[in-house]
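Reopening this ticket.

The earlier resolution said the output was attached, but the attachment link was broken on my side. Pasting everything inline this time so it's all in one place.
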Amino acid sequence: MQMTTLDRIYPRDRLSVADNTCSRDTGEAELPEILAYLIETKLNLNLSHCMVIEIQRHSWRVKNVTVYSGTEELGTLGVDVHQEKITLSNRAIGEVMVRKGYMASAKANQLSANYDKFFRPATPLVKANMLRKEAYNEMARERMAQTNKALPPIRSFVESLTAHVMDNFDKYKDIAIDNDWSFPNLDVNSLPSLYSDYKLVDEIAPVHSKRDGFYVYISDGVCLAADSVGRKIGAHYSNNLPTELSGKIGMLKLAEDKTFIRSVGYRQQQDFFYILGDYDEHTK
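Inline output:
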């Protein structure tokens, strides 16, 4: 491959170098001319795109280039020195190229066409689906963490109680305290509710075969609702939400990221939530 250097690429205002801790001039770093042409062309044609370059320290050559649109990562441009080709990889390409997960070419026109086709911001529904998977995994991890917090004997005890005792556990605790039940060095006012904690653990991760729930993604003034498998089930303007849905989203907006609120839902991040309950009931 014919090589050139970074200092020959323009524009430079949206091109940066990752972890530049070396005193050597990054402009001297080498890269294939075809990659330099692709970088320069796409930065000029896509004013919202910016790129971050990673350089191999031992050879002082460009290793790969990560492409962003705002804060959204669109994909990576790489160098295959053995095949003398430029590689393009991202989530969309990985779904198409099932076996190797990336596209590679030494032809400028082919690289340019594939870049235009696959290096674009995700649609709101695709973004919602990606966040849905992240949220579900986070809730599952939180469920496991909450479950593991309980000592095995306590967890075993709670799980073995009959439905009647579980439903009335808090009342029984209050009766015991009112009748002067005590334990040395234990503040009765700080006693946990085993039933409530157990119910919280049970609600944290959505078990869709047993429990209703849906995901909400807010983007560009639109509130998009998706079901457990990512299908769109509704959309609303953010400033005109149904009262029930607006109330729960409002509560979750006050919480921190990756927080579950009992009987309300889960906040993955500031614009993505899991709401407990049936969507139709929230939008009547």
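Reporter confirms the inline version is readable. Residues 177 and 183 are 10 Å apart (CA to CA). The chain has a mean pLDDT of 85.
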